[in-house]
Amino acid sequence: MELYELSIHEALAALDRKEISSLDLTEAYLTRIERIDPSVQAYLTVTADQARAAARQADLRRAEGHAQPLLGIPIALKDIFCTRGIETTCGSRILKGFIPPYDATVAERLSEAGAVLLGKTNMDEFAMGSSTENSAFMPTHNPWDLGRVPGGSSGGSAAAVSAGLAAASLGTDTGGSIRQPASLCGVVGIKPTYGRVSRYGVIAFASSLDQVGPFARTVPDCALMLRVIAGHDPRDATSLPDPVPDYSSLPPGSLRGIRVGVPDEYFVSGMEPGVENGVRRAIDTLIELGAQVDTVSLPHTQYALAAYYLIAPAEASANLARYDSVKYGYRAPNPTSVLDSYQRTRGEGFGPEVKRRIMLGTYALSAGYYDAYYLKAQKVRTLIKADFDQAFARFDVLVAPTSPTVAFPLGSKTQDPLSMYLSDVCTLPVNLAGLPGMSIPCGLSDGLPVGLQLIGPPLGEEMLFRVARAYEATGQWTPTIPPLP
Amino acid sequence: MISREDVDHAAMLARLGLTEAEKQLLQTQLSSILEYMQALSQVDTSGIPPTAQVIPLRNVFRADEPATSLSVEDVLSNAPDREDDFFRFPPVFE
Known about the structure:
heterodimer; A: 485 residues; alpha/beta; Amidase signature (AS) enzymes; 11-stranded mixed sheet; 15 helices; 38% helix; B: 94 residues; mainly alpha; Histone, subunit A; two-stranded antiparallel sheet; flat
């Protein structure tokens, strides 16, 4: 077994037994990145020297007897997280060369936990997209089939974990940007409850929806990552004060007595039969584990996509007003006036999808259209959340597909924005309601991974990990790094 | 179908410089996206309040105490243009 194949828990055990050092582990990942990443293109920046220095530091600390939850474990961060002294672009030309003078809280917490940062991963520009093809710099390729997308917007972080280019990583999820790429790349990913993880230092897209979460190859690894990053942060007024449970110490067990709801509306028309079969098989496994499974209706699901694509662009249009060429980021050369600088900088600095969403959001918020679009969407959002509230009065957890399709070929949806938006049809209602959602691999369809989505009530992460852990322990899916050239 | 004037107006509100080709494409694409959004008008939302936030937090206060913040040099380190301890930019008033 190669070192880059070890789970975090296996690597920590090997480190504790002094069979390997963090430097060995870090070098194994750096070598693999050098060999494989030219074809996967998961990383925008590899911080090899800093990683080696951090690994040596971790080895020293371990020798001194320090115990930290991720001491010496190599990880990657989506390029949406500010990292002090390390270029942070958010996948955009407008932030090319931006070197943050401070760390995001999650970067700080991972570093305090002893993690070794390998680099920053590729993403759709400003997290707007479902394929990572909207990166201003390059597309990322799916490790299971290099001709296909890894999903998005956190496609680089998902592909890095899938291909053994990091032990774990962080992404963000505004409408499915952790769960959908986790599904398409065959890894575990969780979007926690809105407010569970601090967003301080996370470049904003849609502030009522954005949330940070981890990717890993196994459920306990994902749980450990979340335990490290979750919790209140005085620098994020929306972060929740509730204590963080020890998600990672859950033993695999039976699901006797657990009430599982299967929402009919998530088995949408256009869903690939291979995806539906994979999800139905996984549901049968949950029944064998003792869960009580029944169907449930979430009747406003069909309106979620329309509501989401008004609310998210509206918030984005306000958040992205900060790219004004004054304090940081790109400035078009030789501005003749304030207006000229704004217009040319933003026109040259933003890519097509970001412009489309700024325009859509600005239009939806503008005088005369606000009531018909934005306000209407926020009322429909109330109904979508009420559907979930009613479902969670009867069920502990809901299960559904994560994505209606497996990974699709690069370039196949770039000309049709609406068809790309439909990739998130099963994930974005969860963001609208602020709930935790998770994707775990549940098999292959024509050689490509299928994801099972678990949805919980507010702060129901523990229940999601419990169900995911029980499913994973059945061995229906074995964490696998696909063969790469 | 949204009008060309709507596209021009939104682009101006957003201070977004767009080429002629971009404006034409956006007029078509935004029209079809907004047509899809019309589905929302089928939903009866009478008496339904709009969502303001999805978590139960209210009025998050903190003590008004000085704390360490970034140095001037850190703040200016990414400036596209600067002069001494200031950001440099074209004049707002001529």
